[in-house]
Amino acid sequence: MRAYSSYKDIVKLVKKVDSIGLVPTMGSLHDGHLSIIKKALIKNDIVIVSIYVNPKQFNDSKDLKKYPRNLEHDLEKLKIFNKVIVYAPSDKDVYNEGEEVKKYNFGEIIKIMEGRLRPGHFDGVATVVEKLLVMFKPNNAYFGEKDFQQLILIKELVKKIKLDVNIIGCETIRESDGLAMSSRNKFLNKSERKCAGRIIELLGKAKKMYKTSSLKAIKSDILKQAYSIYNLTIEYFEILDVSKFLKDKKEIRAFIACRIGNTRLIDNIRV
């Protein structure tokens, strides 16, 4: 594992590499990230792991300020990988001075769920991902399915800017009680962590109900149980046919976003 703060240094290193994988992260790495990196190493000669908390995708300055950062911890975790190059830049290496967020027209996908609740978030995500893809020109780029709406958007981005790169979704890695691994989990206290483990239970109930109940009935029941039984504050719960965005085979997914104390968590499963 080697780490660099300048993308130009990395570009020189990988100039003659046949197959490059890219794993964009915001750091605070956990086993979910490591599983994505391991998957990327199977198909690529070199994997570039970016560690960068992108300020352009935060519509809440307080959220940006408290987002966990520990580069030393992250580099220690990545020492086990021989064919990994870490890109850990400053803002100046990513953006020109005064550079604005690029505006994209992603259509309906940014009008629902995360797009509706976090205006400008996906433009900020797409801006930095486009930069990383143009910088390193990877053959394959890997994104976790926990952020499934983001995964849809990145696939759409690649079509829009006509880049020759495979966007590969990676299965969500979970804790022993089913909670999706997330850098934000560390903000939960003991009682909040216990509540968070119930999120997957709600999604499981929705999956079971989907076979026999209407979407309206499922949503009503899930929202009622979330508050009365699990003490979760739900920001949204949706069941969507994501194939209409991916233009792929039919796939139904249940999505949830909730707050537990001051911590916001999202998750989704196939139903």
Describe the model.
- The chain folds into two domains: 2-170, 3-Layer(aba) Sandwich (Rossmann fold), CATH 3.40.50.620; 183-270, Pantoate-beta-alanine ligase, C-terminal domain (Pantoate--beta-alanine Ligase, Chain: A,domain 2, 2-Layer Sandwich), CATH 3.30.1300.10.
- 41% of the residues lie in helices and 20% in strands.
- The protein has twelve helices and nine strands.
- It has helices at 7-13, 31-43, 61-66, 71-78, 91-94, 113-117, 121-136, 148-161, 190-196, 199-210, 215-228, 243-246; strands at 2-4, 20-25, 46-51, 84-87, 140-144, 166-170, 233-241, 252-260, 263-270.
- The strands form two sheets. Strands 1-4-3-2-5-6 form a six-stranded parallel β-sheet, with helices on both faces.
- The protein is globular and about 55 Å long.
- The relative contact order is 0.13.
Radius of gyration: 19 Å
Give the name of the CATH superfamily of the largest domain.
HUPs
The average pLDDT is: 95
Distance between the termini: 38 Å
Quickly give the CATH architecture of the largest domain: 3-Layer(aba) Sandwich
Helix content: 40-55%
Total beta strand runs: 9
What sequence of helices (H) and strands (E) makes up the elements? EHEHEHHEHHHEHEHHHEHEE
What share of residues are in beta strands?
15-25%
Shape, per Cα inertia axes: globular
Low-confidence stretches: none
At the third CATH level, what is the topology name of the largest domain? Rossmann fold
CATH classification, class level of the largest domain: Alpha Beta
| Count of DSSP H/I helices | 12
Structural class: alpha/beta
Number of domains: 2
Largest sheet: 6 strands, parallel
Strand order of the largest sheet: 1-4-3-2-5-6
